What does this fold into?
Amino acid sequence: MPRTDLPPGPREPTAIQTLRFLTRPVPFLESCRRRYGGPFTIRLAGNVPFVVLTDPEHVKEFFAVAPDVLHPGEGGKVLGPIMGRHSVLLLDEDAHMEQRKLMLPAFHGEKMAALTGLLEEVTERAIASWPRDEEVALHPRLQAVTLEVILRAVFGFDEGARLDQMRTLLERYLIEGVHPAVMLPPLHWDLGPRSPWGRFSRTRAETLALLGREVAERRASGGESDDVLSMFLAAEHSDGSPMRDEEIVDELMTLLVAGHETTASSLSFACADLVRNPGVYDRLTAAIDAGEDEYLDATITEALRRRPVLPFSQPRLAVKPVEVGGRRYEPGVALTAGIYLIQHDPSIYPEPYAFRPERWLDQRPGTYTWLPFGGGRRRCLGASFAQLEMKVVLRELLRQTTLSSSAPPERTARRHITVTPERGARVTLRARAREREAVPA
Ligand code: HEM
It folds into this structure.
């Protein structure tokens, strides 16, 4: 007989658990595991109880549960105003699968390969413009790169006035969209253009109008290119009908929100860890100079293990009774994979807090032990895209510059939907070209 009680968890009031989770999510989750082992239950304000799974075998069962039993989309409803009601992230069951199937071809390997040149162009130019010989925070600069990549490679904007207008709008959108008054539906009061919801509603309307115009024009012109929008324009529903403009706009906004902050934060952590691990740094620079990818790929895999920017998967709300890991859960509880905790389990990863790309030179990431992109039928659609982008950015950064920092490691802090280095990954960049010129031939 399976157990039917909820796993244990902190007894502190919900407000305290919420505060600890919002301010220092990683120490909070680690203290829960130390105290309760796994799985454990946490309670966050305005949410149903979350059960965090920490055993890869339980996660395997969890990812395989039928789509009519666990609903991840329902748990993400707070993101509705930012992503739009057609968003793949917010749908469940058949509607989710239909949308996901429409989007998948845009992220296939050969499509990603075709975008490499564009990613390199955007990255090279951005890094060349970053200040040298003074301490800078990399995170905002990396955010600008990942935003530009989405504008050019996903939305398909060419350089020009419209790209500039869209960039300005999206920068506003991303700041205004994470205001608590936007994330919490009861606070959706339009108290005029200066109120948070009022301001966001206007920015949203302007953004969607501009994006809608771009989609309609691209559809009318019939021109094909390598960007994700082109793939959406060519996609067909199972009944043969094309994706509608409003569906395309919502999915593009979903890719922006899901892909921008996550990739920028992952890259910030990778840089922050690299400067504090000189052995890894030197080996990576040598590999990049020699044009070899194996160590670069291993470094990215390790960065995503050591610093998963989403510490757990999208919570899936039980809408029917479900059994996972020998326990039966009733409707009204959400289950989630404890990505961070599994990736720091010493029985899976010896010395889990060490940053050691070497782990991955003779080992492939396991489906239920390496989880930065979640898993099952909700696994991140942009996983290959993100890894390609991280590769292009790290390679270019270490080609153009030498990174250094004498500061102690930065703590992890929450920033919007992800965790990031608290001070934005502060480093000093020095030009490498000059160093090379200084060396006699
Ligand atoms: C390093 C960067 C990234 C990380 C760590 C990341 C992580 C994740 C995670 C953990 C999920 C939830 C999976 C689950 O609950 O099982 C997810 C979903 C998703 N991600 Fe990413 N992501 C990244 C970049 C991207 C990029 C670049 C894009 C698109 C351009 C993207 C698009 C999506 C979409 C559309 C979903 C929803 C999939 C669905 O519900 O079917 N992500 N991501």
Q: What stands out?
A: The longest helix spans residues 245-275.
